[in-house]
Amino acid sequence: MLTRRPPRSRSGRRFPPETDRPGLTLFEMLIVLALLATAMAVSWPAVQRLASRQNLAQAAETARIRLLAARIHAIEQGMPYQFRFEPGGSRFVILPGDSANEPTLPPGGGTVRLPVASGKLPGKVQFDPLQMGTVGGGMILETRFAELPDSRDLAVINWSPPLVFEADGSTNDQTLQLSDPNSEVVYRLAIRGLTGGILITRTTGTGSDAGGGAGGGTGGTP
Question: Where residue 62 sits, what CATH number does that domain have?
Fold first, then answer.
């Protein structure tokens, strides 16, 4: 009886004999896909909560930095500067002056171009809506945002009342609150009027954690 010998390579070495390796059946592949889908469905809410918490921490730090930037502009320009946010939304702006109107330049200001800035909080993080009866907010003319690429979008937003930093860097004691619909965590930024320092606190259903923020405005860590 003849037997089939394994083939040889050019160097004389024998290749291992061929064996049949059956692949996965369609039924087995469907089972694997079902298990993967189940695992994703179970873990996805936890992944969403983690991402929301990270976005909230980043948003709180972004808001803190921009608030301090408005204060620095007020001191450097020798005139009031304002920070406004979109209640129930994610946008914010930094503008010269203490109202929606064009500001009055300080003595000797000439035709200097005053810093203007806008930004947006990450993910689905948003500023909390204003309380009923709050006045001083509303839309701002597009000309105030002329130097910004998203001026048209900014001009149709109902802004919060201005959070004003005076030329000496002082302001009123105020608190901003940030939240995410996918997270139970809430971040609060408490602004100290006299020093301009900002204290970041994180609250959940079980308690709160506070970060530093005196004087120089150092924010809390998540």
Answer: 3.55.40.10
For residue 216, the Cα-to-chain-centroid distance in whole angstroms is 22
Between CA 117 and CA 95 the distance in angstroms is 7
> How would you classify residue 207: left for phi > 0, otherwise alpha for psi between -120 and 50, otherwise beta?
left
Give the model's pLDDT for residue 53.
Answer: 86
Q: Would you say residue 36 lies in a domain?
A: no
Would 108 be classed as within a structural domain? no
Reduced to 3 states (helix: H, G, I; strand: E, B; else coil), residue 127 is strand
Q: Tell me which amino acid residue 209 is.
A: D
**Integer Cα distance of 99 and 140 in angstroms:** 9
Q: What is the mean pLDDT of residues 192-210?
A: 80
| Percent share of the chain, pLDDT over 90 | 51
Q: Please name the amino acid found at residue 47.
A: V
How many residues would you count in the chain?
A: 222
Q: Can you give the residue range of the structural domain that contains 200? A: 45-103+115-210
Is 57 exposed, middle or buried, given 0-12, 13-18 or 19+ CB atoms closer than 10 A? buried
Spatial separation of the C-alpha atoms in residues 189 and 61, rounded to whole Å? 9
Residue 14 above 70 pLDDT?
no
Number of domains in the chain: 1
50 located within any domain: yes
More confident of the two residues 216 and 128? 128
pLDDT of residue 88: 94
Q: What is the reported pLDDT for 222?
A: 35
Compute the distance between CA of residue 82 and CA of residue 161 in angstroms, rounded to an integer: 9
